[in-house]
Specification:
By secondary structure, the chain is of the alpha/beta class. It has 2 domains: 136 residues, Aspartate/ornithine carbamoyltransferase (Rossmann fold, 3-Layer(aba) Sandwich); 155 residues, Rossmann fold (3-Layer(aba) Sandwich). Helix content is 35%, strand content 14%. It is built from 10 helices and 9 strands. The protein has a 5-stranded parallel beta sheet, covered by helices on one side. It has a 4-stranded parallel beta sheet with strand order 2-1-3-4, sandwiched between helices. The longest helix is centred in the last third of the chain and has 20 residues. The two termini are 32 Å apart. Bound molecules: N-carbamoyl-L-aspartate. N-carbamoyl-L-aspartate binds next to helix 3 and helix 7.
């Protein structure tokens, strides 16, 4: 793997090995120990779309390992407003950084960017396409909470059409033999080509509009935000806004170890009264983004992760 554009760039063995390294890096992410194995390396953070967690967790991952970070910053203050093409902007990166992270509103932009440079490129979200590093931290969370990735019952809920996190995650979970329930409004179902692909590889898939019907069978409920910014017009968004909401009272029939995840930001999909339940894992999940990304950065930069011992 020289770049990470979709989860297809990783084998299951590579995914598990990234998660193993990530686990060993927890003390570094917590600031309990220092391991500057990326000293002298420079990461370029190129975010052409808003981001809080992904951008900041890449930055803290790099810095906790002794590396440095360059930020493109506000696109409005870059040469993009002068009409520079993405291809040209990317070509500079070979001279400025050792690795680049890109988020862009256009599907396919990360693949396109990786063709413009020699350094590794990491897709941090390309429009309604893919978000493979979110998948790594999602898998890390699931494995930490359930002890395995194999054979779980996972529901993906919300905007499955435009949500890139669920596109990447469903493909990875299917490869680990999970059964998937896709819960969405009929206008926001999982893209047909993904459903067909997953079914043809033997994955059990149920598609429904009913969030509350199957809660007692689930090991994971993965909630997502309706991707307002991808709707062609506001009226279409209003028709589906707020359609799914998880409240504490919905969880009475849930298994004790069922976990609720969310890539965040949440809008109104999960009521704050869920936060105090044993099921809520979304903030822990966001923290795991740091170790998942530390581990990935080391892998792509060819730096081996030593055994980590707390100080
Ligand atoms: C997600 C994204 O950008 O796709 N956010 C994230 O990276 N944690 C989800 C979203 O914006 O809804």
């Amino acid at each position: 793997m020289s770049s990470l554009i979709t989860v297809d760039d990783l084998t299951n063995e590579e995914i598990l090995s990234i998660l193993d390294d990530a686990e060993r890096m927890l003390p570094i992410a917590r600031g309990e120990t220092h391991l500057p194995i990326l000293a002298g390396k420079v990461l370029a953070n190129l975010f052409f779309e808003p981001s809080t967690r992904t951008r900041m967790s890449f930055e803290t991952a790099m810095k906790r390992l002794g590396g440095a970070v360059l930020n493109l910053g506000d696109v409005a203050n870059s040469s993009v407003v002068k009409g520079e093409t993405l291809y040209d902007t990317m070509q500079m990166m070979d001279g400025y950084a050792d690795i680049a992270v890109i988020r862009h509103p256009r599907q396919g932009a990360a693949r396109y960017s990786s063709n413009a440079v020699n350094i590794p490129v990491i897709n941090a979200g390309d429009g309604a396409g893919h978000h493979p590093t979110q998948t790594l931290l999602d898998l890390f969370t699931i494995r930490t909470c359930h002890g395995t990735l194999e054979g779980l019952n996972v529901a993906l809920v919300g905007d499955l059409r435009y949500g890139r996190t669920v596109h990447s995650l469903s493909e990875a979970l299917a490869r680990f033999g999970c059964s998937l329930t896709f819960i969405s409004p009929s206008s926001l179902t999982m893209p047909e080509e993904i459903v067909t692909d997953l079914r043809s590889s033997g994955t059990s898939i149920t598609e429904t509009e009913d969030l509350h019907g199957s809660i007692e069978q689930l090991d994971v409920i993965y909630m997502t935000r309706i991707q307002k910014e991808r709707f062609p017009d506001e009226d279409e968004y209003q028709k589906v806004a707020g359609v799914f909401k998880l409240n504490q009272s919905d969880l009475v029939s849930a298994k004790k170890n069922m976990i609720i995840m969310h890539p965040l930001p949440r809008v109104d999909e999960i009521s704050p009264d869920v936060d105090s339940t044993v099921h809520a894992k979304y903030f822990e999940q966001a923290f795991y983004g740091v170790v998942a990304r530390m581990s990935l950065l080391c892998r792509l930069l060819g730096v081996e992760v030593p055994e980590v011992v707390s100080e």
